[in-house]
């Protein structure tokens, strides 16, 4: 996993020696072995973690995650959840982990993948989220609700928290899927308090004193633990208990004061100075305190049960009990306020030397050393950007003073990159101008990463090109992208690759496919050199779409195959892999290799929607619709395309083959011309429109409708203009389709012969086979003109799947007989006489036929039946 992870957070605490048995809690928790959610919710200091550790100690499959401050970023949270699960099974969550590395993860798709992976487990697993209240970040509660709703029966979620989470607890409670442990359950009973205090102090306490202390603390375990420490060496227990008053906060302050005062000065100083750390190890404590012996001190504190929680099995890393640590920090600020910044500075330097930039930056900021924090952040930026840690970058960049950020152009550009990735475009141009002014004005600037600094001129133009593309300004996109290439160093493959891709998008949108293909190919080469394989996959889709429009099916197939070879070398599944299979499925379908097409689609579906790019769901449906059409299931194809329209997700690529146009073509083939005409009206299409590549697919669809409506004059004139435009743009794929329609319009085999000559080298087939009986007749005419030409003969020999109606309710035998007679010249009364039924009965049959065929007239029913093969 690319994100930096603190492995000690996945260590389940072991039950401490001397823990008292609490059978009543065991009885409450026992149903949690089958429950969807076990919730332990209570204020700080009620022993939630201890109870969980004891309950789960005998379970073999426990995925533990101890959450901490700063874990409220959505992506960071789920990266850690997946990592926790992988401590149980290293292969668990691999696909989800890969998806979490994308710039803008689609969380529902990622969670769906995770749920699917959990459902494949052959054993139960308990996923424990300890201190869940610290993950109270945007989106996480919604994600958790989704996870809970879809959790498979072998997976059990366990949450400990100081406050009830925003989850559907009432619904889970009503279903009997929730096990709850509350503060009232966790409080020590008088008997438990007596056992605990006796064991902790090593003496038999007066039952009255125990009862009084239990009542004063209301069974609050942290208070009892602190009280036990304070009682050590004290003779007048009754007096101590009598003076023990106050609410939770004051009780803790009082007892910590008692504990601290009783510690040797060296230990007390150690506790206060190391309280700034959220994790402790011997060398780090030595660096912060300036004293040796940190490891032995931690071990001694652990043995003394002084609110120290081990984070690993080797007792190398610890943390303070959260409440205890907070109180220690309060005392540190009260007693040594001038030392706090220096302590954070020491921690920052230690983490920097240890190669952990994120905590190094955090402590530098806490030390008030903005310049050092900026230095560290600048050096960490490339790795954070590579690992997609946008939330971390944004958090620390926002924490820097404005004037520091203004004098740090590398950091300022890093912030621009984060905002672009988050689609926050509004202030980008102002920030770019600020960076430009800093570079041009000669004012003092600070630079520590000179390699990143050298990339700035190219990045300035790259981001301006992206902004221009977002605004639909193609000319400025190309101009800025060209400048980015000019200003980028020869080894700055990311900037150059991004610039070429933006140029390709702009050229593609304008119809200059030759230039689009050239620049996209250059982008792929640069991204390959940069090692950004996932980005290569995205570019491969665009490049293949361009090649297909140019009629270059062979090259398009090789592009997808090459991309798949690149994914095979990756240690983790790469997002975009199923999209490659969808592309190959569409090419195989066009070549009339339906088994291969289905095999490619099955491979894509095996990887799953979440592994696909945002456009994958609709592209898969379009590919499957093409297969259904080839199989003769026109109704199924139309329904799939309707669903594709519903889930359509666009990107920066031009929408040159709208799903609505593809569905209208199927409707025309079905004879559902009224619906096709309605689509034309919605699309705002006219036969006398100016033609251009951007709407070429839609205008070709309009021409099909005009021919179906027997408006051959308007259809032919539109086809002539479309052909001239496609020829000028070198769009051979479109030329083939237009020539076929011209052949049908004029019943002339000559345009068809030209289309066949263009199509044969690339293996086209379905474009011709789907043409129906009229095109079949023209193909036969071509074979007579060219008797030795095998290609048209192969097309004629291809098996034709009978068109199926896909009717939700099939026609009865009598309805089929009525429909056959409706196709004759007989009138209604004559049909009734022929069938020996009344005219009213005939009308009833006809009404049922119209409903099943989804038509409103006799002529439409006959046409639809002929197209669907119902007759």
Q: How does the overall form come out from the CA principal axes? A: elongated
Determine the strand fraction and express it as a percent band.
under 5%
Task: Identify low-pLDDT runs.
Answer: none
What structural category do the secondary elements indicate? Answer: mainly alpha
Total beta strand runs: 7
Rg computed from alpha carbons, rounded to a whole number of angstroms: 36 Å
User: For the report, how would you describe the main beta sheet?
Assistant: 5 strands, parallel
What integer is the average pLDDT? 86
Separation, N- and C-terminal Cα atoms: 59 Å
> What proportion of the residues is helical, as a percent range?
55-70%
Number of distinct helices? 47
Order of strands across the widest beta sheet?
A: 2-3-4-1-5
Describe the structure.
By secondary structure, this protein is mainly α. 64% of the residues lie in helices and 4% in strands. It contains 47 helices and seven strands. The strands form two sheets. Strands 2-3-4-1-5 form a five-stranded parallel sheet, sandwiched between helices. Strand 6 (308-310) and strand 7 form a beta hairpin. The longest helix is centred in the middle third of the chain and has 21 residues, at 450-470. It is elongated, with a radius of gyration of 36 Å. The two termini are 59 Å apart. The relative contact order is 0.05. The model has no long low-confidence stretch (mean pLDDT 86).
């Amino acid at each position: 996993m690319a994100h930096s992870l603190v492995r000690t957070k996945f260590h389940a605490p072991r039950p401490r020696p001397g823990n008292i048995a609490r059978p009543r809690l065991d009885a409450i928790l026992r149903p949690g072995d089958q429950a969807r959610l076990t919730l332990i919710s209570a204020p700080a200091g009620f022993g939630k973690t201890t109870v969980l550790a004891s309950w789960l100690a005998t379970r073999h499959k426990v995925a533990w995650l101890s959450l901490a401050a700063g874990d409220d970023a959505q992506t960071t949270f789920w990266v850690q959840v997946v990592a926790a699960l992988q401590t149980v099974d290293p292969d668990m969550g691999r696909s989800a982990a890969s998806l979490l590395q994308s710039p803008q993860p689609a969380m529902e798709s990622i969670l769906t993948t995770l749920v699917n992976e959990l459902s494949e487990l052959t054993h139960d697993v308990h996923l424990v989220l300890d201190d869940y209240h610290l993950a109270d970040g945007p989106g996480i509660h919604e994600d958790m609700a989704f996870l809970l709703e879809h959790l498979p029966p072998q997976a059990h979620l366990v949450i400990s928290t100081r406050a009830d989470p925003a989850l559907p607890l009432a619904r889970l409670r009503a279903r009997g899927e929730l096990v709850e442990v509350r503060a009232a359950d966790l409080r020590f009973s008088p008997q438990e308090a007596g056992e605990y205090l006796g064991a902790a102090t090593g003496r038999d306490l007066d039952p009255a004193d125990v009862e009084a202390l239990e009542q004063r603390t209301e069974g609050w375990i942290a208070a009892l633990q602190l009280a036990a420490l304070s009682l050590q060496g004290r003779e007048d227990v009754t007096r101590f208990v009598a003076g023990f008053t106050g609410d939770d906060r004051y009780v803790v302050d009082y007892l910590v004061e008692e504990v601290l005062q009783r510690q040797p000065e060296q230990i007390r100083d150690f506790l206060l100075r190391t309280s700034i750390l959220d994790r402790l190890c011997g060398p780090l404590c030595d660096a912060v305190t300036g004293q040796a012996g940190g490891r032995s001190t931690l071990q001694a504190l652990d043995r003394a049960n002084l609110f120290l929680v081990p984070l690993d099995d080797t007792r190398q890393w610890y943390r303070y009990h959260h409440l205890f640590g907070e109180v220690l920090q309060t005392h540190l600020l009260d007693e040594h306020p001038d030392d706090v910044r220096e302590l954070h500075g020491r921690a920052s330097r230690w983490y920097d030397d240890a190669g952990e930039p994120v905590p190094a930056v955090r402590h530098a900021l806490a030390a008030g050393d903005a310049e050092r924090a900026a230095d560290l952040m600048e050096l960490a930026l490339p790795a954070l950007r590579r690992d997609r840690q946008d939330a971390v970058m944004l958090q620390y960049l926002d924490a820097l003073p404005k004037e520091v950020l203004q004098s740090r152009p590398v950091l300022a550009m890093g912030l621009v990159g984060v905002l672009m990735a988050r689609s926050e475009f509004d202030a980008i141009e102002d920030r770019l101008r600020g960076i430009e002014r800093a570079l041009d004005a000669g004012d003092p600037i600070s630079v520590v990463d000179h390699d990143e600094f050298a990339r700035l001129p190219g990045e300035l133009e790259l981001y301006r090109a992206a902004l221009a593309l977002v605004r639909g300004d193609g000319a400025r996109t190309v101009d800025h992208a060209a400048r980015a290439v000019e200003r980028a160093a020869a080894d700055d493959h990311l900037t150059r690759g991004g610039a070429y891709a933006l140029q390709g998008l702009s050229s593609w949108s304008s119809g200059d496919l030759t230039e689009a293909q050239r620049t996209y190919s250059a982008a792929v080469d640069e991204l390959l050199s940069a090692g950004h394989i996932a980005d290569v996959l995205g570019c491969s889709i665009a490049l293949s779409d361009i090649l297909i429009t140019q009629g270059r099916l062979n090259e398009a197939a090789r592009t997808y195959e090459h991309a798949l070879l690149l994914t095979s070398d990756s240690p983790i599944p790469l997002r975009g892999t199923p999209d490659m299979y969808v592309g190959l499925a569409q090419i195989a379908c066009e070549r009339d290799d339906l088994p291969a097409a289905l095999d490619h689609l099955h491979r894509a579906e095996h990887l799953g929607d979440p592994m696909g790019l945002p456009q994958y769901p609709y592209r898969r449906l379009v590919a499957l619709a093409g297969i259904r059409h080839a199989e003769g299931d026109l109704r199924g194809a139309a329904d799939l395309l309707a669903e594709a329209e519903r889930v359509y997700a666009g990107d920066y690529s031009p929408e040159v083959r709208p799903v609505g146009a593809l569905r209208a073509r199927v409707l025309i083939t079905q004879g559902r011309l009224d619906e096709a005409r309605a689509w034309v009206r919605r699309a705002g299409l006219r036969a006398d429109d100016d033609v251009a590549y951007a709407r070429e697919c839609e205008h070709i669809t309009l021409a099909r409708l005009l021919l179906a409506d027997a408006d051959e004059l308007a259809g032919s004139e539109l086809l002539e203009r479309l052909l001239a435009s496609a020829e000028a743009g070198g769009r051979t794929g479109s030329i083939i389709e237009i020539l076929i329609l011209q052949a049908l319009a004029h019943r002339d085999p000559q345009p068809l012969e030209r289309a066949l000559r263009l199509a044969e080298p690339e293996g086209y087939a379905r474009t011709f086979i789907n043409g129906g009986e009229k095109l079949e007749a023209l193909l036969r005419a071509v074979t007579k003109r060219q008797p030795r030409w095998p290609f048209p003969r192969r097309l004629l020999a291809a098996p034709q799947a009978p068109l199926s109606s896909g009717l939700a309710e099939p026609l009865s035998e009598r309805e089929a007989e009525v429909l056959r007679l409706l196709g004759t010249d007989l009138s209604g009364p004559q049909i009734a006489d022929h069938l020996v039924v009344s005219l009213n009965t005939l009308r009833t049959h006809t009404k049922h036929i119209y409903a099943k065929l989804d038509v409103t007239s006799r002529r439409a029913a006959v046409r639809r039946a002929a197209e669907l093969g119902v007759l």
